[in-house]
Design a protein that fits this description.
It contains nine helices and nine strands. By secondary structure, it is α/β, with parallel strands linked by helices. Helix 4 runs parallel beside helix 5. This is Glycerophosphodiester phosphodiesterase.
């Protein structure tokens, strides 16, 4: 069951955590500069079917505007400024494509947790496209990324297209039927919000042979506790602090 397991214990959330604008190449550079060779980022499809790094379906928070991402082409998104909101040092930092992020990670030997983040109504196509492209780009000797998603349908589509690339199901709270869901997806891991996880749940998931990954852990004491519970890894925004303590 446990494909490509274990994976890195501490992963830079959205590229560079709190130190750089999320889901940009600047964030990936920042994570790397802090010694991170493991990164999580969010991938969504643009109107032309090209996957780009983006967390929110609607513009407005990290990129100015109010359009929905699926209504914009990748060419339109790639000239938008995803850095100004964060600070003057990042003015003009563009929205990257998944391909650009993938190449950066390959070049610098950075392991990827690719969160498939479909816009509503685009679950299956996003899973299929991201999986197909990832499979096409993966080098023979390259460690595959770990796909994760809150969307069961997106992960199922990824499984259909690229079954050998491992999958983890993201949940905000462990559902009662977690094991059945993981079995249906032939997933290797469950990813959950650490705030809702109990030690009993952690033990059950580990006893069943699955990886257990948490988001988003920014406190060192909590990180110690989670590792004691058997949690395999987590992503963090505090790449300046947590990485130094645990890597
Ligand atoms: O993959 C873990 C975490 O990134 C999930 O939450 O909202 O930051 O994508 P979010
Ligand atoms: Mg994410």
């Amino acid at each position: 069951m446990a494909l490509n397991w274990p994976f890195p214990r501490i992963v830079a959330h959205r590229g560079g955590g709190l130190l750089a604008p999320e889901n940009t190449l600047a964030a990936l550079r920042c994570g790397l500069a802090h010694g991170f060779h493991a990164v999580e980022f969010d991938v969504m499809l643009a109107h032309d079917g090209v996957p780009v790094l983006m967390h929110d379906e609607q513009l407005g928070r990290t990129v100015a505007g109010s359009a929905a991402v699926p209504t914009l082409t990748s060419a339109e998104l790639m000239v938008m400024d995803a850095g100004s909101w964060f600070g003057p040092a990042f003015v003009g930092e563009p929205v990257p494509t998944y391909r650009q992020a993938f190449e950066f990670c390959r070049q610098h030997d950075i392991w990827m947790n690719v969160e498939i983040k479909p816009a509503a109504g685009f679950e299956q196509i996003t899973g299929s496209v991201v999986a197909a492209l990832t499979q096409e780009w993966l080098g023979r000797d390259q460690r595959p990324p770990l796909f994760s998603s809150f969307s069961f349908d997106a992960l199922m589509a990824a499984k259909d297209v690229a079954p050998a690339i491992p999958r983890g199901l993201l949940v905000n709270k462990i559902p009662p039927d977690w094991e059945a869901r993981l079995q249906a997806l032939t997933a290797v891991a469950l990813h959950t919000d650490h705030k809702t996880l109990t030690v009993k749940q952690a033990q059950a998931i580990k006893s069943a042979g699955y990886g257990l990954f948490c988001f988003t852990v920014n406190d060192a004491v909590r990180a110690h506790d989670l590792f004691r519970w058997g949690v395999d890894g987590f992503c963090t925004d505090r790449i300046d602090m947590i990485g130094v303590l645990f890597n």
